[in-house]
Design goal:
Blueprint: H1 2-7, H2 29-35, E1 42-51, E2 56-63, H3 70-76, H4 83-86, E3 94-99, E4 102-106, H5 110-124, E5 130-135, H6 140-145, E6 153-157, H7 161-170, E7 196-199, H8 203-211, H9 221-226, E8 233-239, H10 248-255, H11 257-265, E9 267-279, H12 294-306, E10 310-316, E11 325-331, H13 334-338, H14 344-354, H15 370-376, H16 381-388, E12 409-411, H17 417-423, E13 431-433
Parallel strand pairs: 5-6, 5-8, 6-7, 8-9, 12-13
Antiparallel strand pairs: 1-2, 2-3, 3-4, 9-11, 10-11
Helix pairs in contact: 8-11, 11-12, 14-15
Length: 434
């Protein structure tokens, strides 16, 4: 206890004028959720304050008695035929990855988070062959993408190779593809799969150089063979900094016009963009543009302005981040968006056809299925309220407007949780997008 208390010594919020607690990892999750907690039965640093070229990395092993009992964990290590020993995966301590003091991934939130950010878009696209990932240094996002049989190539652009290397050593299950390593070009380690292309470089430069306004993308098949990085993607997933992080790079990722436009241009005509956009809104939160999620609001408006036909937000509450987490999905093509609203049975059928099974013939998905997809199809009431808290209230927020009354409704944006919640089944003549 003295060791953890000593690590937390120093200046804190409110003690020193001008002190920015956002820039101190000990005032983030590392301090409040890990070091300051004295009731863990196990708390062991696997990586402590490792400095990469870009950030500080910590990996902790913890066992919270409110979730798992220490005795059950010890019993799971025995070879006595007990339930615990036969199912040790249920009783192991949690592993937590933190970057600059903020929780990025956990063992028990791994599947809910990474499957929710990957599979809804992948199964909605009719035939995803080329996929790009921005960030995702621990490797789990690529792991999930590699489970799709339609995939020909996934390019992961991660600026911090140090995170990739540390995750390989201390979080091996995040990059473990051994359970699906039975297809052409397979490998037990995800980044060794022939379809995976890991690039340790700046994603902003990559997309601006290859798809920005100054780049000329050749439509020649020969040029595509020689300059494969310029070939467009069917799905693009941005799995990096949160939009509300007090970090200059975060602001650029969500608000730089040239970069966001290059993401649009990097997608095929029926392409899908996926972006993790941080903590979910509460019903009494101010509009994003007037609160801590101003960057999220700015990005949504930019995506609308540059030509995405439909923008949707869904949330997942089992990511182990202390709050429901949200994902934005943007469609360039209206027909592709229609596939978002398929029935659970239709989604299950597609999953059975596309997802590579494990070696024993079982599904390689641990969390996502058709029923889970159904829960993502409708934005929460909190996002509708948050949208209508804007100072210039959108027309569709009017209380008199209700689905099914035959009125023609003008929707001024590709993003409208009000439209999705109230008019999802409206006839085309009833709804017009200005």
């Amino acid at each position: 206890m003295m060791m953890w208390s000593h690590k937390l010594r120093g200046f804190r919020k409110g003690f020193v004028p001008g002190y920015n607690f956002e820039l101190n990892p000990l005032d983030a999750d590392l301090g409040s959720e890990i070091l300051a907690s004295h009731d863990f039965d196990i708390k062991r640093p696997l990586v402590s304050a490792a400095e990469t070229d870009f950030q500080m990395v910590d990996v902790y092993e913890v066992l919270d008695p409110k979730q798992r009992r220490l005795g059950d964990y010890y019993k799971s290590l025995e070879d006595d035929g007990s339930y615990e020993s036969l199912h040790p995966e249920f009783f192991a301590p949690d592993h937590i990855l933190l970057l600059d003091g903020r929780i990025q991934s956990t063992r028990y939130g791994d599947a809910p988070y990474h499957e929710s950010i990957v599979h809804p878009a992948m199964i909605t696209h009719p035939n995803p062959k080329r996929v790009a990932v921005i960030g995702g240094g621990e490797g789990a996002t690529v792991r999930e993408i590699l489970k799709h049989s339609t995939l020909e190539k996934v390019v992961m652009i991660e600026i911090d190779g140090g995170v990739v290397n540390l995750s390989t050593k201390y979080l091996p299950e995040w990059q473990d593809c051994s359970s699906i390593a039975h297809h052409d070009g397979c490998a037990e380690w995800c980044f060794d799969d022939e379809r995976a292309d890991l690039r340790v470089e700046d994603a902003l430069a990559y997309f601006n150089d290859n798809f920005g306004s100054s780049s000329m993308i050749s439509e020649s098949v020969d040029d595509h063979d020689e300059n494969d990085e310029q070939e467009q993607f069917d799905v693009l997933i941005m799995d990096c900094l949160d939009p509300n992080d007090d970090h200059p790079f975060a602001k650029v990722l969500y608000t730089d016009d040239g970069y966001v436009t290059s993401l649009h241009d990097a997608l095929t005509d029926d392409g899908i963009l996926v972006v993790q956009v941080g903590e979910a809104s509460e019903i009494d939160d101010p509009a994003d543009e007037n609160g801590s999620f101003e960057n999220r609001s700015t990005m949504i408006k930019m995506l609308d302005a540059i030509g995405f036909n439909s923008i949707h937000i869904y949330e997942e509450s089992h990511c182990e981040f202390g709050a429901p987490w949200t994902t934005l999905i943007a469609f360039k093509d209206v027909d592709t968006r229609k596939r978002w609203y398929r029935s659970p049975a239709a989604v299950e059928l597609d999953l059975s056809r596309r997802i590579l099974p494990t070696k024993d013939g079982k599904t390689s998905l641990r969390y996502f299925d058709g029923a889970t997809m159904k829960s993502y199809q409708m934005p929460s009431r909190a996002f509708e309220d948050n949208y209508c808290h804007q100072q210039d209230k959108p027309e569709e927020c009017a209380e008199k407007v209700r689905f099914g009354n035959g009125e023609e409704v003008n929707v001024s944006s590709a993003y409208s949780p009000v439209f999705e919640r109230r008019f999802a089944d409206a006839k085309p003549k009833q709804v017009s997008v200005l």
